[in-house]
Write a structure and sequence with these properties.
By secondary structure, the protein is an alpha/beta fold. It has 2 domains: 3-44; 66-244, Uracil-DNA Glycosylase, subunit E. The chain is 51% helix and 10% strand. It has 11 helices and 6 strands. Strands 1-3-2-4-6-5 form a 6-stranded mixed sheet, sandwiched between helices. A hairpin with a 2-residue loop joins strand 5 and strand 6 (210-215). Helix 3 packs antiparallel against helix 7 (157-174) and helix 7 (157-174) packs across helix 8. The model is unreliable at 19-46 (pLDDT under 50). The structure holds iron/sulfur cluster. The site of iron/sulfur cluster has 14 residues, from helix 4 and helix 7.
């Protein structure tokens, strides 16, 4: 059970006990409220599961200090990811670009603005989903100058492998119903597939115990708007899966 669900149970128990008090059941109220308070206290003491938000925050601190691969030496900011810790959908891109490295947030450049439009067309807000990348630091063609424009590159397989434990932990904490990989890099990084993105996109796969839908990266749609219809077809499959629970 998620910690948010424990909190809901505690709150409804307290509400019910307050009703007892309204009915004049003082004795029952005093006895029961003290046991509800001790449940709250055990939460604070950490004997019940810590919240998903707290777990993500702790993981974020670890990534901020990480230098496991060479990307960590040149980044301006570690771009951990953002969104709801209870998200049904988790988008996974390849890595931060120039804008993301400067601001420390994922998908905020032109490709990110297009991703936001796709999310809104699906009937969600950015805040209600989770957006992350397979590597948390900016892969640069020329790592000596993070201020250089047009300096982004895809992460290497080794860089993705070095960083994947952080993404895996994010997935374990959030437990999304489906992951949507954006582009060839993050798809290959998770699935280790040989097929090109044009072949694998649109077919629901499995990553550990979570469904995974590969689709094109929004940057590819900026270069070739004809790809938009394919991404929308893929998103319709995701929406249908979330609605019916079947593929
Ligand atoms: S990309 Fe990932 S593994 Fe590499 S330094 Fe950054 S956080 Fe660490």
């Amino acid at each position: 059970m998620k910690s948010s669900e424990y909190i809901k149970i505690i709150k409804s128990a307290k509400n019910a006990l307050e009703e007892y008090e309204n009915w004049g059941e003082d004795e029952i109220y005093m006895k029961k409220i003290s046991s509800a308070s001790s449940l709250d206290n055990s939460f604070a003491a950490g004997s019940l599961p810590v919240s998903q938000d707290a777990e993500l925050e702790s993981l974020k601190k670890q990534t901020a200090a990480c230098r496991k691969c060479s990307l960590g030496a040149h980044r301006l900011n570690c771009v951990f990811g953002e969104g709801s810790s209870n998200a049904d959908i988790m988008f996974v891109g390849e890595g931060p670009g120039f804008d993301e490295d400067h601001k420390g947030r994922p998908f905020i450049g032109r490709a990110g603005q297009l991703l936001t439009k796709i999310i809104e067309a699906m009937g969600y807000s950015r805040e209600s989903l989770y957006i992350a990348n397979i590597v948390k630091c900016h892969p640069m063609k020329d790592s000596s100058d993070p201020e250089k424009r047009a300096n982004d590159r895809p992460p290497s397989p080794e860089e993705m492998d070095s960083c994947r434990s952080y993404l895996d932990r994010q997935i374990e904490i959030i437990r999304p119903k489906i992951i949507i990989t954006l582009g060839a890099s993050s798809t290959k990084g998770l699935l280790k597939n040989e097929e090109s993105i044009s072949v694998i996109r649109g077919s629901i796969r499995q990553y550990k115990d979570v469904k995974l839908m590969p689709t094109y990266h929004p940057a590819a749609l900026l270069r070739n708007p004809n790809l938009k219809k394919y991404v929308w077809d893929d998103m319709k499959k995701v929406m249908s899966f979330l609605k019916t629970g079947t593929i």
